[in-house]
Write a structure and sequence with these properties.
Length: 381
C-alpha cells in the first residue's frame, strides 16, 4: 500500500516538472518581448526560441497526466463512467472559461489598441480546457465499453491512438483539408487560422496541441497501474529510454525521402516533430523523477515545485508584466543582459507570488489536479 510520503513524492516531481515549464515559459516570453531587433539575430535568441517549443507541450502533457490521476481515483472508487465524465468534463469547461476570462482581461487592460478579434484568440488555456473535455469524453466511452481486466489497456491504447491520429491529421487540416466552411472563430480551434486567412503558428489549436494532452493521459494511466506503482524506480527511468527511442524514431522518419503530405512543415505541423517532442517529454519526465528522488530536486525549499504548485496563477500574472501594458521593460528595445535581468525579476516576483499563494495564505496547495481546476486531492492514495 503506498504511503502518504510516496504519494507526496509522486505529486512533487510532477510539480517540479510543471515548474520547469514555467521557467522555460518565462524566458521564452521575456526574450521574445524585450530583445531588440539586433539581439534577435543572435544564436542566444535562437536557442531561447528552441527552448520555447517546450512549455506548451509540457503543460498539456502534464494536464493529461493529472487528468489520469483524477480519473483513476474516481474509477477505483467505483463511480459510474457517466459520473466520472460529468466531473472531469465540467473541470475542463471551467478551465476553458478561465481561458476566455483571461482573454477578456487582456482585452480590457489593452483597451484602445487591442483588436476585438483578440477576444477569440485560441490560447493555451483554451486548448487545455478543450483537451480536458475531449479526454473526459474518451475516458467515458472507454470505461463504459470496457469493464473487464483489459480496461486499463484500453485506457492506455485509446489516448495513444488519439494522440497519433491528431498528429497525423494536423498537416492536411492546416493545408489541403482546411475546414473553410467553418467561421474563423471555430476553424481557429482546428488549425489556428484566427482572422488572418491562414493558420498561425503562434496559436494553440487542437491540432496538434491536444495530442500532447492525450500522450500525457496515456502516460498517466501507465504510471497509475498497480504494476508500475510497485516498480516505480524502474518504470520511470525506463520511460526516459523509451523517450530517446521515440526521438530517434521521429528523426529517422523525418530523414526518409518520401513524405505523406503535399505540404510539409517540420516545425509547425509535422507528425515527426510531434513524435520528437513527445520523446523529449518522456525523457524530461524521467529526468525530473530521478532529480527529485535521487538528486537535489526536493532538498529544502524548491523554487520549481513552488512555481509548479501555482502554475495557473503565475501564467496569468506574468503575461501582464511581460507582454501587457505593465511590461517592466520597453518592448523590442533592450539587449540580452538587460532582458536577462528583467527575466530574473519576473522569476523572483512569480516565485514570491506562488509562495504567498500556497504558504502564507494557508490555502490548500495546488496539486497537479487543483492547478488545472480540480479540487485539491489528499496526498495519500
Amino acid at each position: 500500500m503506498p504511503t502518504a510520503d510516496s504519494g507526496k513524492f509522486r505529486l512533487a516531481y510532477i510539480d517540479w516538472m510543471r515548474g520547469l515549464a514555467c521557467v522555460l515559459m518565462f524566458q521564452t516570453h521575456c526574450y521574445d518581448c524585450w530583445l531588440s531587433p539586433q539581439a534577435r539575430q543572435s544564436k542566444f535568441f535562437m536557442y531561447s526560441q528552441l527552448a520555447g517549443t517546450f512549455p506548451a507541450p509540457l503543460f498539456l502533457f502534464l494536464a493529461g497526466i493529472s487528468f489520469a490521476l483524477v480519473t483513476e481515483k474516481m474509477w477505483q472508487k467505483g463511480l459510474p463512467p457517466a459520473q466520472i465524465a460529468a466531473s472531469t468534463i465540467r473541470r475542463g469547461a471551467e478551465i476553458f472559461a478561465f481561458g476566455l476570462l483571461f482573454r477578456l482581461q487582456e482585452f480590457v487592460i489593452a483597451w484602445g489598441w487591442a483588436p476585438g478579434s483578440d477576444l477569440l484568440r485560441v490560447d493555451v488555456l483554451n486548448t487545455i480546457g478543450v483537451s480536458m473535455m475531449l479526454m473526459g469524453i474518451v475516458c467515458w466511452v472507454v470505461l463504459a465499453i470496457h469493464r473487464g481486466p483489459h480496461t486499463r489497456l484500453a485506457l492506455v491504447l485509446t489516448p495513444t491512438g488519439a494522440a497519433l491520429l491528431i498528429s497525423l491529421l494536423t498537416p492536411p487540416l492546416w493545408t489541403t483539408w482546411r475546414p473553410h466552411w467553418l467561421s474563423w472563430p471555430l476553424e481557429s480551434y482546428i488549425n489556428g487560422v484566427h482572422n488572418t486567412g491562414t493558420p498561425q503558428p503562434w496559436l494553440f489549436p487542437i491540432f496538434p496541441w491536444a495530442g500532447f494532452a492525450f500522450a500525457g493521459l496515456a502516460t498517466g494511466f501507465i504510471l497509475q497501474s498497480p504494476w508500475a506503482r510497485q516498480r516505480e524506480t524502474r518504470v520511470l527511468p525506463s520511460l526516459g529510454v523509451v523517450g530517446i527511442l521515440v526521438v530517434e524514431l521521429g528523426r529517422w522518419l523525418d530523414a526518409q525521402p518520401r513524405q505523406l503530405y503535399a505540404v510539409y512543415d517540420f516545425w509547425h505541423t509535422s507528425p515527426n516533430f510531434f513524435l520528437i517532442r513527445v520523446g523529449f517529454l518522456l525523457a524530461i519526465l524521467s529526468a525530473s523523477y530521478a532529480w527529485c528522488r535521487w538528486g537535489a530536486g526536493l532538498w529544502g525549499f524548491s523554487p520549481l515545485v513552488q512555481l509548479g504548485q501555482a502554475s495557473l496563477l503565475v501564467y496569468w500574472v506574468h503575461i501582464e508584466f511581460v507582454y501587457g501594458r505593465f511590461s517592466i521593460l520597453p518592448k523590442h528595445s533592450v539587449g540580452i543582459g538587460t532582458a536577462s535581468l528583467g527575466l530574473l525579476v519576473i522569476f523572483l516576483a512569480m516565485l514570491l507570488l506562488a509562495f504567498i499563494r500556497t504558504r502564507m495564505m494557508r490555502r490548500p496547495l495546488l496539486t497537479p489536479q487543483s492547478s488545472l481546476g480540480f479540487p485539491p486531492q489528499p496526498l495519500s492514495s
